[in-house]
Amino acid sequence: MSTAAESPPPTFETIADLLAHLGDVPAYRVRLRPTPGTATIQDAVDLRAREKCLLELVDGVLVEKGMGFLEAFLAAELAYHLATWVRLHDSGIILGADATIRLLGDQVRIPDVSYFAWDHFPGRQLPPEPIPDIAPDLAVEVLSKSNTRREMARKPREYFEAGARLVWYVDPKTQTVTVYTTPDRPDVLWIDDTLDGGNVLSGFALPLRDLFATTSPPQAGCRTGDLQPADESFKIGEG
What we know:
Layout: H1 15-21, H2 41-51, E1 55-58, E2 61-64, H3 69-89, E3 92-95, E4 101-103, E5 107-109, E6 113-117, E7 138-142, H4 149-162, E8 166-171, E9 176-180, E10 186-189, E11 194-197, E12 201-207, H5 208-211, H6 230-233
Parallel strand pairs: 7-8
Antiparallel strand pairs: 1-2, 3-6, 4-5, 6-7, 8-9, 9-10, 11-12
């Protein structure tokens, strides 16, 4: 269970202030009802049931989850490989992008893929509530066109503060995976590298060429700086 001290909801003088607070996310992803700064976890549950959309709750503001066709494919592909390994070793469960979790009090996040060890679930009984207060051992975010550097920079901090042990950022544009074992020291894996589970999923290994096998190749020269991997595009502590 993740905990955090309660803090007063933020207030915003202008829409620009609101978007800046959220990390410069596109305005079309931000819900204005309930009034930004006042939305609750129940609002997220109710709106999701009514409109069938994925909504994160960020400092009392409902923000639609950025996703697309390619991003959904990569999330499903990675979830398949992880689930195959986890089932073989009976170590826990793998969840997809519908799995909504509560972090640090009243933040709601929706990792595209997540892994929870059985240790989180006494008697291997899963929580019945729609948004349980639980941090994943592994959180995976697949970057989409609507994600911004500042939006994504805060997520590793939140995941680790809540109790996560590993975070992966999958970048379809550069065909890289940025691996966080701490919130501020990411390592970038390129197309010829192999993604492994570290101490969280010891023994898991997936060549990135297999993960990105059916996606368009990155632009020529990405290793020399024409494209920036996730740790440069979304570097912690900037902005």
